[in-house]
């Protein structure tokens, strides 16, 4: 369970996350959507302790994130940041192996190597293991970062815009990996997505943020409605049912 209780973030005298309280049940996929600047990344940053909170508390699997031991937190929770600042002179193999660090402190066992191989295969990175990050396309690099996070093998996985730079097929593959991680490995995955239809088709829960607040929260069946999308983005959309999914059409 992720419990976010009365969390706010202030920069100078601007409040960018405003008294957010949410509970995310264990073992499922939750998507956070909302316009640019809504506070999605800031919220994820505070849940993972990358950013200090101005007010409130966050518990992840019973751990108080402000007080938890760093290594222990990293064994429970992993995060893919929207902007990664890893040095580009690392190979794919190095980056993915980096995900094992909280478990090994650098000494890889046979089991760790198994995790690394599996993550590389899951993200279709075979053959690219020896390449440096600056020798990859944007989408390949994004897949290497996702492989690193999956390799950390934590119960809670936070992914900030994991579909950035990915083509349609790779985006669908990532969402299937995410779904499998929740369904088969009972992981709790929280993603920030801009594609509302990916959120609709692959999430158990959707959280809609605007101006630092949670405007609406619910399963895709209740969330994907023209009135909610209009309130979030100020955009008129049509919603269609297709193969038991609600699809939002917004090209007019
Ligand atoms: N270091 C900072 N100093 C001041 N303001 C900041 C800082 N970081 C973010 N902000 C502001 O906080 C607000 C929320 O930013 P955040 O990155 O959380 O938005 P977001 O919902 O993730 O947007 P996007 O979809 O564009 O990634 C924005 O108005 C942003 O300009
Ligand atoms: Mg963001």
From TrEMBL:
Tell me which domain of life the UniProt entry assigns to the organism this sequence originates from.
Bacteria
List, in alphabetical order, the GO biological process terms annotated in this UniProt record.
iron ion transport
Q: How does it sit in the membrane?
A: Peripheral membrane protein
Where's it found, cell-wise? Cell membrane
Which keywords fit this entry according to its UniProt record? ATP-binding, Cell membrane, Ion transport, Iron, Iron transport, Membrane, Nucleotide-binding, Transport
- Report the GO molecular function annotations: ATP binding; ATP hydrolysis activity
Q: Which family does it belong to?
A: Belongs to the ABC transporter superfamily.
- The protein depicted here goes by the name Iron ABC transporter ATP-binding protein
């Amino acid at each position: 369970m992720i419990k976010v209780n009365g969390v706010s973030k202030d920069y100078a005298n601007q409040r960018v996350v405003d008294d957010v309280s949410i509970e995310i049940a264990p073992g499922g996929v939750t998507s956070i959507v909302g316009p640019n600047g809504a506070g999605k990344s800031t919220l994820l940053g505070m849940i993972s302790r990358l950013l200090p909170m101005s007010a409130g508390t966050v518990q992840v699997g019973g751990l108080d994130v402000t007080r938890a031991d760093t290594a222990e937190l990293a064994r429970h929770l992993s995060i893919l940041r929207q902007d990664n600042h890893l040095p580009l002179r690392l190979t794919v193999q190095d980056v993915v192996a980096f995900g094992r660090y909280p478990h090994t402190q650098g000494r890889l066992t046979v089991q760790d190597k198994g995790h690394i191989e599996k993550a590389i295969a899951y993200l279709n990175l075979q053959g690219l293991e020896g390449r440096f990050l600056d020798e990859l396309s944007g989408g390949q690099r994004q897949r290497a970062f996702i492989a690193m996070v999956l390799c950390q093998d934590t119960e809670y996985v936070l992914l900030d815009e994991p579909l950035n730079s990915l083509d349609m097929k790779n985006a669908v593959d990532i969402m299937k990996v995410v779904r499998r991680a929740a369904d088969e490995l009972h992981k709790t995955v929280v993603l920030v997505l801009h594609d509302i239809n990916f959120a609709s088709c692959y999430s158990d829960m959707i959280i809609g943020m605007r101006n630092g607040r949670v405007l609406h929260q619910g399963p895709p069946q209740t969330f994907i409605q023209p009135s909610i999308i209009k309130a979030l983005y100020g955009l008129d959309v049509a919603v269609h049912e297709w193969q038991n999914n609600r699809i939002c059409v917004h090209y007019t």
